[in-house]
Specification:
Blueprint (H helix, E strand, L loop, with lengths): L10 H11 L4 E6 L2 E8 L2 E2 L22 E3 L5 E6 L9 E13 L8 E9 L5 E8 L5 E2 L6 E6 L6 E6 L9 E14 L2
Antiparallel strand pairs: 1-12, 2-5, 3-4, 4-12, 5-11, 6-9, 6-10, 6-12, 7-8, 7-11
Bound molecules: calcium ion.
């Protein structure tokens, strides 16, 4: 008579193997809000005073309460973001910039829009998607095209997020009231 043995592998061993091979790695998204002014402060600020980052750092858009604005093509505004929520040694794979913005001039023929960008460790500007504006009412973007990134965050890492107005989208003017930064990193790499 054949003796069939069954082996049960404890779940704890399976988990250990999966952890060792990285198979359980998962992504974590953290808010990285603006926390100081960055390389560029070329836009104007509502009230014509105060730090630029303090006009756009809200978690919830506060519309016309405070904002940065411009109607000059090529002008940039950027902010260093708070990376304290990202543990040192984490591999960052995505950066998102989520604006809340409005057109200044209601005239239909006056086109209005802007692009986002980021800057890692003082390196080159990496330009992102275009956000078109058609209304003087603030639009709060809940999603945006992510920047794909691949770097390991350490204690010296700096990240700026910002906005600029391309030629042709400046005529109607742009107000930005919030520029929310998000970073996605992989845990267990
Ligand atoms: Ca604001």
């Amino acid at each position: 008579m054949k003796n069939v043995r069954r082996y049960a592998i404890p779940a704890s061993i399976i988990a250990s193997v999966l952890l060792a091979t990285g198979a359980l790695a998962f992504d974590i998204v953290v808010n990285t809000p603006p926390s100081s002014d960055g390389t560029y402060s070329q836009w104007d600020t509502s009230g014509f005073g105060g730090a630029h980052w303090s006009k756009v750092d809200e978690q919830l858009c506060n519309d016309g309460t405070d904002y940065v604005f411009t109607s000059t093509a090529g002008e940039r505004d950027s902010y260093l973001v708070d990376l304290s929520g990202v543990p040192n040694g984490s591999r960052v794979n995505e950066i998102r910039v989520l604006p809340c913005a409005a057109k200044i001039n209601p005239k239909v023929g006056m086109r209005s829009g802007f692009r986002s960008f980021y800057k890692l460790n003082g390196g080159p500007n990496v330009n992102g998607q275009t956000f078109n504006l058609t209304s003087t009412s603030f639009v709060n973007w809940a999603s945006s095209t992510p920047f794909h990134a691949d770097f390991v965050k350490d204690e010296n890492t700096t990240l700026e997020i910002g906005v600029y107005v391309p030629a042709g989208l400046n005529a109607g003017g742009v107000k930005v009231s919030k520029l929310k930064g998000e970073v996605r990193y992989s845990d267990g790499n």
